[in-house]
Design goal:
Oligomer: heterotrimer
Number of domains of chain C: 1
Order of helices and strands of chain A: HHHHHHHHH
Helix content of chain C: 25-40%
Order of helices and strands of chain C: HEEHEHHHEHE
CATH topology of chain C: Rossmann fold
Number of strands of chain C: 5
Shape of chain C: globular
Chains: A mainly alpha, B mainly alpha, C alpha/beta
Number of helices of chain A: 9
CATH class of chain C: Alpha Beta
Radius of gyration of chain A: 18 Å
Chain lengths: ~230, ~240, ~170
C-alpha cells in the first residue's frame, strides 16, 4: 500500500477546495460584496466629505475586512463537519493539523485575497491616496492571513455549537485586536508619510506565529468538536 | 510531595481541603484589607499632583494585577487539565473565570472613577484601560464558550484551548495597545501612572495586593466546592457526605 | 447488537478514536491506541451514520478525494468498486442526486477501497434494499477471508453464518 506523501496530500486538499469553490461561486463572492457594502455604510453614516473620510479610511477598511472575514468563516468548516468529511480526515491517519491548515490557506485564497485586491479600490472611494495602496494591500495580506488562522481556531471550537456564529465573533474578535491595531495603524502611518516597517514586521511575525502554532490548536479544537 | 499533589487532584480531598482553608483565607484577607485601607486612606499623605484622587489606586491597581494573574492561573489550570487529564484542574479553571471577570470589571470601574478627576472624562482610551477591556472580552468569551456546550467534558476541553490561545495572545495585546497609544500623546501629562512611589504610599498598596490575592483564594475555595458539587453530584462519596455518615 | 439508544454508536466511535473514553483503554494488537493514534488510524476505515460525501462532487470525485488521502488508487479501481456495488451509473452524478441507498453504497465503496484491515461500520445496511444487503454481506465476507476484521453495529444480525463472528449484546 503506497502511502501518499505530505505534499501530495496538501495538493489533494487544495484541489478539492478549489473544485468545490468553483461549483459554489456565490459562497465565495458574498463576503466580498459584504465588504463593499459595509464600507459604504460609513460615508452614509458620517459624511460625504472625502476630507473627513480620509482620516478614518484605514480603520474603516480594516474593520470591514475583519467583519467580512468573520462572515466567510461560516463556510470554512461547518459544511464539512455536517456531512462527515472532516470526521474522515480525523481518521485518515494523516496529521489533522496539516489537513486543516491546507484547507484554511485555500480558504484564504478564496476569501482573504479578494479582500486584499478590493481594498485599494474601496480605500480610494474613502479618500485614500494611491500612494498608500502598497501598504494597504501588504498589511491586509499579512493581516487577513492571521485572521483566517485565528478565525479557523474559533471556527473549529464553535463548529459543533448550534447557531454559533455570534459566539464565534465574540471569541475571535478580541484575539484579532492586535492584528487590527498594527494593520490599520500601518496604513495610517503611511498616509502621514511615516515609517511603516515596524508594524508591518510585527504583522509578519504574528502571521508566522499563527502559521506555526495555529494548526495544532485548530486540530485539537476540531477533535473536541467531533466527539 | 507528589503524593500530596496527587491526593489534591481527588475531588473529595479537594472539597474538604477547600472548606478548611476558606475561613483562614477570608479572615486574613479582610483584616489585611482593613489595614491597607487605613494605611492608604488615612495614613498616606495626599499626592503632590493628584491630591486625594490617587487613593483609588489602592483598589484599582490590585484589581488590575489580579485580573491578569487570574487569567494566567486559569490558562495554566486548563493546560494542566488538558495535558494530564485531571478533571479537577478544569474545575479550577471554570471557577476562576467569573472571579477574574469581576476583578476586570472592578479595575475598569475604578479606572474610570480615577480618570474623571484626572482627565475630566469618564473614559479614555489609554493603554491600561483598553487592555483591561480586551481582557474582559477574553473572560466573557471563555465563559460564553463554556456555557454553549452541554457536556462538561467537552466544555472543559474546548474552553481550555481557548484559554491557552488567549494567554499566548495577552502579551501581544498588551504590547500592541501600548504601541497604539504611544502614537498619540495623551490628553494630559498625568495619566494613570501611580504617583512616584514614596514608601508611606507603597506599603498599603502591597498589603492591599496581598489582601486581594487572599480574597481571591478564599472565593476560589467557595467556587471550587460549588464546581465539585456540580460535577460529582452522582458520586457515591458525595451521597455519603450528604447523608451525614 | 442492541436496541436504539443503548450506546452502539458511541462505542464504535470510542474504538475508532473519535471519542475519548472516560475510563479504560483501547488496545490494538496488544498496544494502547492512544500512543500511536495515527498508525492505528491508517489501519482503520470508519463508516458512520452520515456518508461523508460532498453533495457537489460526483461519486467518483468523492472517492478520489477521500481514498487518495490514504493510498494511491487508479481511476479504474474506483470504477470497478462502484460496479461491484452496482452503482456504476452514479459515477459521474453529483452525490446530491443520488438516492439514500446509492449514497450508502458509495460510502461502502470508500471503505473497501481504503485498504484498511479493520472496518468499523455503524449500521452499514441502512437504506439498502435486499440486493444491496446481499452485496454488502458478500464484500464483508471477502474482507474477512482476506484476513481483515470488522466491527459493526446493527439492529439485525449480519453474516451469522460466517465462522468467526462474535456477537456482543449491549443493554
Amino acid at each position: 500500500m503506497t502511502e501518499p506523501g505530505l505534499m501530495r496530500i496538501v495538493g489533494l486538499i487544495v484541489a478539492r477546495e478549489l473544485r468545490l469553490a468553483v461549483r459554489h461561486w456565490d459562497q465565495v463572492v458574498q463576503p466580498l460584496i459584504f465588504f463593499v457594502v459595509v464600507t459604504t455604510l460609513f460615508p452614509l453614516a458620517i459624511s460625504p466629505s472625502l476630507n473627513e473620510l480620509r482620516n478614518i479610511a484605514p480603520g474603516v477598511v480594516w474593520v470591514a475586512a475583519m467583519l467580512a472575514s468573520l462572515l466567510a468563516l461560516e463556510s470554512l468548516f461547518r459544511p464539512d463537519v455536517e456531512d462527515g468529511t472532516i470526521e474522515q480526515w480525523a481518521l485518515s491517519g494523516q496529521p489533522l493539523s496539516l489537513l486543516l491548515l491546507a484547507k484554511t490557506v485555500t480558504h484564504w485564497l478564496l476569501a482573504g485575497l479578494p479582500l486584499v485586491i478590493m481594498a485599494p479600490i474601496v480605500g480610494t472611494a474613502l479618500g485614500m491616496p494611491m500612494s498608500v495602496w502598497p501598504v494597504l494591500a501588504g498589511s491586509l495580506a499579512l493581516g487577513t492571513g492571521c485572521l483566517s488562522i485565528l478565525g479557523g481556531i474559533g471556527a473549529a471550537l464553535t463548529v459543533a455549537v448550534r447557531r454559533g456564529s455570534v459566539l464565534l465573533a465574540l471569541l475571535v474578535l478580541p484575539l484579532e485586536m492586535p492584528v487590527l491595531i498594527f494593520g490599520a495603524r500601518a496604513v495610517d502611518l503611511a498616509m502621514h508619510g511615516e515609517a511603516v516597517a515596524g508594524p508591518l514586521n510585527l504583522l509578519a511575525a504574528m502571521l508566522l506565529l499563527c502559521l506555526a502554532l495555529g494548526p495544532f490548536a485548530m486540530s485539537a479544537a476540531m477533535r473536541i468538536s467531533l466527539e | 510531595m507528589w503524593l500530596w499533589f496527587y491526593k489534591l487532584a481527588s475531588p473529595p480531598y479537594a472539597y474538604a481541603m477547600a472548606a478548611r482553608l476558606r475561613p483562614w483565607l477570608l479572615w486574613s484577607a479582610l483584616i489585611l484589607m482593613a489595614v491597607a485601607a487605613y494605611g492608604g486612606l488615612v495614613l498616606a499623605p495626599p499626592d503632590y499632583q493628584q491630591k486625594d484622587a490617587f487613593r483609588i489606586m489602592y483598589v484599582h491597581v490590585p484589581s488590575a494585577i489580579l485580573s491578569l494573574s487570574v487569567y494566567i492561573i486559569l490558562a495554566v489550570a486548563a493546560g494542566i487539565g488538558i495535558i494530564w487529564r485531571i478533571k479537577l484542574a478544569h474545575a479550577v479553571a471554570a471557577a476562576c473565570a467569573p472571579i477574574g471577570a469581576s476583578f476586570t470589571v472592578l479595575a475598569l470601574a475604578t479606572g474610570s472613577i480615577w480618570g474623571k478627576p484626572m482627565w475630566g472624562t469618564w473614559w479614555e482610551w489609554d493603554p491600561r484601560l483598553t487592555s483591561e477591556l480586551i481582557q474582559l472580552f477574553l473572560y466573557l468569551g471563555y465563559m460564553a464558550l463554556r456555557s454553549s456546550f452541554d457536556d462538561t467534558q467537552r466544555a472543559d476541553r474546548a474552553s481550555a484551548i481557548l484559554a491557552i490561545v488567549g494567554v499566548v495572545n495577552v502579551p501581544v495585546v498588551k504590547y500592541s495597545v501600548v504601541w497604539w497609544n504611544s502614537l498619540h500623546q495623551g490628553p494630559s501629562i498625568s495619566k494613570m501612572a501611580a504617583p512616584s512611589i514614596a514608601s508611606p504610599m507603597l506599603w498599603p498598596l502591597l498589603i492591599m495586593l496581598l489582601a486581594f490575592m487572599l480574597y481571591f483564594a478564599a472565593v476560589l475555595c467557595d467556587r471550587i466546592r460549588a464546581e465539585i458539587l456540580k460535577r460529582e453530584r452522582n458520586a457515591s462519596w458525595l451521597n455519603a457526605l450528604a447523608a451525614g455518615t | 447488537m442492541g436496541q436504539n439508544g443503548v450506546g452502539k454508536t458511541s462505542l464504535l466511535r470510542c474504538v475508532a478514536g473519535l471519542i475519548e473514553p472516560e475510563s479504560g483503554e483501547i488496545d490494538w494488537h496488544g498496544a494502547p491506541v492512544r500512543k500511536e493514534r495515527e498508525a492505528f488510524h491508517r489501519q482503520l476505515a470508519y463508516l458512520g451514520h452520515v456518508n461523508a460525501l460532498k453533495p457537489d462532487l460526483s461519486a467518483l470525485e468523492n472517492l478520489h478525494y477521500s481514498v487518495r488521502l490514504r493510498r494511491d488508487v487508479e481511476r479504474h479501481e474506483m470504477l470497478e468498486m462502484l460496479a461491484r456495488l452496482q452503482v456504476s451509473q452514479c459515477a459521474d452524478l453529483p452525490a446530491r442526486a443520488l438516492s439514500a441507498g446509492q449514497k450508502r453504497r458509495v460510502a461502502i465503496a470508500r471503505v473497501i477501497l481504503s485498504g484498511a484491515s479493520l472496518w468499523i461500520l455503524d449500521e452499514p445496511i441502512t437504506n439498502l434494499d435486499r440486493g444491496g444487503i446481499e452485496c454488502v454481506e458478500a464484500c464483508m465476507a471477502t474482507h474477512l477471508r482476506a484476513g481483515g476484521s470488522i466491527l459493526t453495529a446493527a439492529h439485525q444480525s449480519l453474516l451469522t453464518q460466517h465462522a468467526r463472528v462474535r456477537v456482543l449484546e449491549l443493554q
